[in-house]
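User: Last request for today: this protein with adenosine monophosphate, please.
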Amino acid sequence: MSDKILAVNAGSSSLKFKMFLMPEEEELFSGAADRIGGPGAGEFSYKPTGGEKVKLELDMPDHSVAVDKLLEVLVSSGAIASLDEIKAVGHRVVQGGEYFKESVPATEAHIAVVEQLAPLAPLHNPANILGVRSFQKALPEASQSLIFDTVFHQTMPEINYIFPIDRKYYTENKVRRYGAHGTSHDYVSGESARLLGKDRNSSNVIVAHLGNGASITEIVDGKSVDTSMGFTPTGGLVMGTRSGDMDPTVVTYLQKVENADGDKLSDIVTKKSGLLALSGFSNDMRDVEEAANDANHEHHAESRVAWDLFVKKVANFITLYAADIIAQGKKVDAIAFTAGIGENSTTVRKAVIDRLACLGVKINNQANETRGTVDITGEGSTSKVYVIPTEEELMISRDAYKILKNS
Ligand code: AMP
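Assistant: Here's the final one, the structure of the complex with adenosine monophosphate:
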């Protein structure tokens, strides 16, 4: 029998949701609530599959108001006849530390561990728990489960997760590379294996998840062995508002220059850096790209640097991971692009692949203009090149469904 499953991604001021019919994996309903807890009305939007998108202004002092509204519109739109049709809710959790090696039921004991891990993801984990609590209250009979962004990367070998600082910071303070976007890297590498016609456990793929947050993962024999994000999702690539990797003493120096405490420094590197800082006006790649290509734009020169550095960093990480795969006597079967920039920016994809000439990777310029899941491999390329729209919510639903069936 089929079941309706909700996949939920609760942020500090937002709630994104999708409902699937499982095991058919048919998307039935999607939407989001934004500006929860903010001053004034927030925006609540939803779209039944095949129906019109509806946008509402709604006062949402906390997440539970958004959850109640979601349940109300699920019924009023006819997506469900009654609330007991929702058999399970899968919740995205950003940080599972080393504790969680798989998705788990949202028991009190597991929630307590997620709370303990909050210092490692102060913006995300508490918000994720708020989402869990709201749905527990609204749907007490449904199975609730936790699906972690970090789980997929728990297969990394120590050499790739340990930082070269006193080991006590790892053993006592849990400082190590955790990575993120795990469900996306998992999904896209699985789809790449499918397109390759290979068993995923014997396929080697480099996934470039390029969105407002961005990360690249080296996947060998189906497992994550290295990833660009670090201790937190601030490490690695240049992102919308995050700095990515830089000399760590930049931060200690800024502490003096700005007379800043930890929170302010964190704010600088997570919310005021990246494309936003480099371009001087926007964290949105569409704006940056437009300004970079418009000589008359007031931020043209800085945007050109922002765009070029973004592309260069992406190509650098791919090259590094390709070299690592080759050093293991293996072949890079595919490079796959996903997320907002990876799925939509034909120019970023082309510029990145053109920088991989030393690896013999080539792009098909015509195929690169196509949308959706597409093979953009150029003639004579040493690796396949794919664009694969990510499906993080589907991955959440798959695990929530599995947990429901095992309960
Ligand atoms: P995400 O975080 O995956 O939603 O991705 C958001 C990012 O994708 C933003 O920086 C958008 O500007 C970027 N994006 C979306 N569409 C395009 C496009 N056509 N060209 C370039 N960037 C895009």
